[in-house]
């Protein structure tokens, strides 16, 4: 009986872990703003995708975004717990380097798993303006990754209009 319960437990644990991550768990976000100030907020449990194929990512998050491709179009996107299908999963990491508080850098790293150029649009929300602002993004060449960086603190980014060329 114990063996059966252990097998069921292992199966359920793997099943739950394989599920799509529709919502992020709530967490405390603490970011350096400059040499003396910090920005802090409670990020509530919320969807990663605020609408279809429009991803919101907060600084400090690392995500696996599994896609479905139809023809040359990104048909659907979802955040998953593990990168089980590297050939169709975009890896995204959004971090802050605050080692030198006089030179804070916010970085976005995106890995393109596709055989085509990956493009998307981005808007940022900073503690300075408290407004959404567009920011330029470099297209990601096939099977490579890009490192975007900004010389200031960014709280969150919205990435949308994902496309392959």
Layout of secondary structure:
Elements: H1 2-18, E1 23-24, E2 27-32, E3 38-43, E4 46-47, E5 49-51, E6 54-58, E7 62-70, E8 73-80, E9 89-97, E10 105-111, E11 118-125, E12 132-135, E13 145-150, E14 156-164
Antiparallel strand pairs: 1-4, 2-3, 5-6, 6-14, 7-8, 7-9, 9-10, 10-13, 11-12, 11-14
Structural summary, described in words:
- The protein has 165 residues and is mainly beta.
- It is built from one helix and 14 strands, in the order H-E-E-E-E-E-E-E-E-E-E-E-E-E-E.
- The protein has one domain.
- The strands form four sheets. It has a five-stranded antiparallel β-sheet, with no helix packed on it. Strands 8-7-9-10-13 form a five-stranded antiparallel β-sheet, with no helix packed on it. Strands 1-4 form a two-stranded antiparallel sheet.
- 10% of the residues lie in helices and 51% in strands.
